Model the fold of this input.
Amino acid sequence: MNAQRENPLLSRRTLCSLGLAVPLAAALPSPVGAAGGPRLPPDPFFAYDRPARYEVVREDVKVPLRDGSHLAGQLYRPGTSAGRPAAGAFPGIVYEYTAYADSAEAFGEGAAYFVRRGYNALVCQVRGSGDSPGTVDPFSPQEQRDNYDVIEWLARHPASTGRIGQTGVSYGGHTTLLAAVNRPPHLKAVIPVNGIHDWYENTIYRGGIYSPRIREWQQTVAPGTLRTYAEHPLYDDFWRGRSVMSRWENLTVPTLEINGWYDRYRDGMVKNYRARPRDVWLVSGPWEHGSPEGQYAGIDNGAYLAWWDHWLARDRGAPLPATHVISYEVPGPGAGKGWQQFEQWPPTDARALTLRLGRNGTLHPSAAAPGMAAFDVNTGTTPPAEHQQLRFSTTPLRHDLVLAGDTLADIRASFTAIDGNIAAVLYDQAPDGTSNRITEGWLKASHRHTHTRLSPVKPGTTYALGVHLWPVHHRLSAGHRLTLRLSSDDYPQIDSDVPAGRVSVRTGPAGSTLRLSVMRG
Done:
């Protein structure tokens, strides 16, 4: 496919270079993914496009806020030339409301595709970023109030129809979802890419355990949070104010979630869909963190244009996705069967499968005699040694097996210390012994009931620890094994922050289990 691109590819390696940037080629009945690879579903939504009609006019603006301050932004308007705005009123898109001021120009390049097709687009820097005065406090109530004001300012612009959308990737995806649950009256639709359902659970305290991988980002973007986040290890109003989950009932605006099965926010995106299945459409591809543009089996701007044309321009001829869930079965490229469309997630033909952990490292629907297995706590940041982990595996599969949904590791464990961590990681093990990580979950024992208060841990007492593993859509091929690794650490996903000691795991009929959502291959 020889699509003529209107802006260069943007690297996925840093958050600062993410945007929705590539126009779709001529409409195809079953379009090819943006970076080649398998065709997208034969759905008019993914084949949508229309010609550009306008030039792009840029204006640097100061958006006034209710407290008398302002935010810096770049307003891109349809023009008859590069310096003359076109007459008339146009729908608007808040295109990246983020703390990444250094990427404003790249975001503007991405917005140009929509401006040329009749949309105002505002790239805006949050309070404390770039030329916006103040201090960056990511996803705080103040930042959300500012976002509300930004949307309403764009709606009141003389060249606006008053119908506004918002989109963004990662930071911009988080702010987009938070804007939606704040319900500014002129916000009519959103497209979050790699967004949260809850900042505490998705990013900062995974299973109640601090995630060290976020510290460098904190130091660079919002150093004050190194103190404030550490002051709130439990889930309280500080975190509720930074949460989509706490206001799911307000997520009523049409929402097109763009999710990656290899992305760190897939759990949040799927939970948002499951909380509001009538209002959220979920597209999940074989993508890592960042825009699908440029990635294997990626999608192009034509689909986003269809969404905006339908909800903002009120063009009922612009199609919506044929189903609420469009998912790529991974591995991709690899054994996965590619794009599939479902009416819901998990799919209606998914079923529950419970596997029991056996004392000899087995993973099977039935279990032999009761037993115990144990591992030592890893207090360092190196991968766990053999004595610091347990592995449980199925026999080689006779048929393909598809994991489609969440997984729950119900671990019955005791600790020699007054607290402990459980990291549960699933692997796809090939016949040659190589393993690929499928998904993972974590839980601090003192958070086993809730993240709002600590539950005491008495050494030697066995507790039921329900470890939620992030959702997947993954095919295990015949001859492969499903392997569960249990340990106390999973650096850099979680801190190794518990006392040294030993963890004993109960196995057998009344012991630990792994509950999967599966489909036959």
User: Anything to note?
Assistant: Residues 166 and 433 are 46 Å apart (CA to CA). Residues 1-30 have pLDDT under 50 and may be disordered.
